[in-house]
Amino acid sequence: MSLLEIKNLHTYFTTRRGLIKAAYGVSLKVEEGQTLGIVGESGSGKSVTAMSILKLFEKNQKIHEGEIWFQGEKISDFDDAELRKIRGNKISVIFQEPMTSLNPVLTVKKQLFEVLMLHQNLNKKQAYKRVLDLLAEVGISNPDKIANAYSFQLSGGMSQRVMIAMALACRPKLLIADEPTTALDVTIQAQILKLMNDLKRELGTSIIFVTHDLGVINEMADVVVVMYCGQVVESTSANVIFAQKSDYMHPYTEGLMLSIPRLSDKKGRKLEVIPGAVPHPLDLPVGCKFAPICKYATEKCKHEDPEYLEVEPNHFVRCFYPRNEVRHSGKHNK
Fold it and tell me: Which of 13, 46, 100, 141 has the greatest CB tally within 10 Å of its CB?
């Protein structure tokens, strides 16, 4: 049994202009001790999928269809009171903006107290000792000083370490990291990624890592899920995608991989770009959502929606022509 399983998830936003299908038909699994990376550009549905797990929604957002299972329980049926017992306890979240995710009128200590006293049933003395231990765990050398500081007194990297300490306070089984390094410079980003990998090894925590940065995914993920326009278009192991060991790949994934600069590149090689733009969610095309800007698209792609099929063991692709050799030779057009 997987730690987490999402089956055919449909999460929609209700707006004045119509219904936005932010994530639809999404299925994925997370195993014990595994890091699953969800990658895609802005608006692809990756954050919506991750936040759907705990229903961390605005009022106009709702799961319309699908199931979410965690440790054998169907948590998509849970009401808010039941989910509160899981949030911050069995499943924790690290948000994108560390500087704005902390409460500016409460000290770090008081914010960590809230988590510990809600879920761990500790008294104040026990909670304070635990706070200092947690801050030390995430590499803060002066935990007593930071515990009594306010968020505006902390740097971006220090704020993110505090957020990670808060997320790990109750030793969750699953950690959702929603673009946790986006607002950080590359040096601090490297430190935070190393910290998360170290804590994963020590605690055995599973991680869902949401990002648009393929370099981060390459460093962190065991399994990669590629999303485009609210759908999962490919899912396989990180080794298969980054080492390009498979004969199969979605054209969108191919475009992402070709856009990455490599040290082995010959001088003068131009980075490839994916032409066009992602369609507006209120004006989605018929058929394959990537077809309007796909250089391999046929008439079939423009009129029919491809299924999400297993092309190799544990390798799924949503494409009529997933085999690289067939696409590149032009045989699929014949």
Answer: 46
